[in-house]
Design a protein that fits this description.
With about 350 residues, the chain is of the alpha/beta class. It contains eleven helices and 20 strands. The strands form five sheets. Strands 5, 9, 10, 11, 12, 19 and 20 form a seven-stranded mixed sheet that branches. The radius of gyration is 20 Å and the shape is globular. The model has no long low-confidence stretch (mean pLDDT about 95). It binds zinc ion.
């Protein structure tokens, strides 16, 4: 097997508040990997956590890590016989499931125990991400899209896939009343996805007025400050107002409130990664037979997401707060980490 090594300017996390724009050579195998020249990346919460704390959840930075799991690019080289073409624009799915375990064989790759998710320090050696000039990936990771689509739109493919998976987890939304607690980028994309999936009423909460405005731009009928008790008391009457609550904040008070706001026989989908342990009024879930389900990453929803963005079915651009050149990654991370100023911040590579 041939291994080729190429120079690769990359955004690398070394430790707390230590992200550098350095050359991190890329070893790739032309016989079985696709070489993609990265055009744009989107900064996600986990990238910000690696920058601020050298960890994201239970994944602790032990070695330098190329950040980034939201990225798109243009194909530069393909293995012989590939259906993909040089020059094709692709969204890259950062999921690298083992494709051999029982869960993978059942089509549940998102919960594969050996998932090598790009830009993650979960395993050691870490799995480098896509905030660099080139990535080497499998053909299965590449989802092509048309030349008319904007880079700034298509780079939302990964977070929108997370949102569409959450909608899948809720079951049929046609005619349903939906609450989304937390109006950050993921919460807002869930609102857009729920609207597309047929929900008749989509309501958002967030403490920040700026996030509530974004929620309405992204498809919520209206948005409420969760500390406004007059508004939220109504949601708890007669056993609860909403058929489905998507919890996208991770805030303990928001998580607990879903038990009150969800109708009997309704569903709570937990997306927000918050504190490891929170209090939940289980008695309410029990007597109302409310289903509580987790939602983690995505499977086929990545391809659906690319189609929805490419066709304009979802317009994510209200969420785009700023763009930086890739060598300005530190400035970009600083801005992305300031929730009073930024929703989604993007890095431009080419
Ligand atoms: Zn697997």
């Amino acid at each position: 097997m041939t291994i080729r090594t190429i120079e690769n300017r990359s955004c690398v996390a070394f430790g707390i508040k230590d992200v550098r724009h350095v050359d991190q050579p890329l070893a790739y195998s032309p016989e079985d990997q696709v070489l993609v020249r990265v055009s744009r990346g989107g900064i996600c919460g986990s990238d910000i956590h690696y920058y601020q704390h050298a960890r994201a959840g239970m994944s602790i930075l032990k070695n330098p890590l190329v950040l980034g799991h939201e990225f798109i690019g243009v194909i530069e080289a393909v293995p012989q016989g590939s259906q993909l073409k040089i020059g094709q624009r692709v969204a890259v799915n950062p999921s690298q499931p083992c494709n051999r375990c029982a869960l993978c064989l059942e089509g549940k790759q998102n919960v594969c125990r050996s998932m090598k998710f790009m830009g993650s320090a979960q395993f050691n050696p870490h799995v480098n991400g896509g905030f660099c000039e080139h990535v080497a990936v499998t053909e299965q990771q590449c989802v092509p899209y048309g030349d008319h689509a904007k880079d700034s739109v298509m780079v939302f493919a990964e977070p929108l896939a997370v949102a569409i998976h959450a909608v899948h987890q809720a079951g049929v939304l046609v005619g349903k009343k939906v609450l989304v607690t937390g109006s950050g980028p993921i919460g807002c994309l869930v609102m857009a996805a729920a609207r597309n999936a047929g929900a008749t009423e989509v309501v958002a909460t967030d403490m920040s007025p700026r996030c509530r405005e974004l929620a309405v731009e992204m498809g919520a009928d209206y948005a409420i400050d969760p500390t406004d008790e007059v508004a939220t008391t109504l949601w708890g009457e007669n056993g609860g107002y909403f058929d489905v609550c998507f919890e996208a904040s991770g805030a303990p008070a928001a998580i607990a409130s879903t038990a009150t706001f969800t109708r009997p026989k309704g569903t709570v989908v937990q997306l927000g990664m918050g504190h490891a342990t929170v209090e939940m009024p289980l008695g309410l879930l029990l007597v109302k037979e409310v289903k509580l389900v987790g939602s983690f990453r995505f499977v086929d929803e990545f391809a659906t997401s690319v189609r929805w963005l490419e066709s304009g079915r979802v317009n994510p651009l209200p969420l785009l707060s700023a763009e930086f050149r890739h060598d300005q990654v530190v400035e970009a991370l600083e801005m992305a980490g300031d929730k009073s100023r930024a929703a989604k911040v993007q890095l431009v590579f080419a």
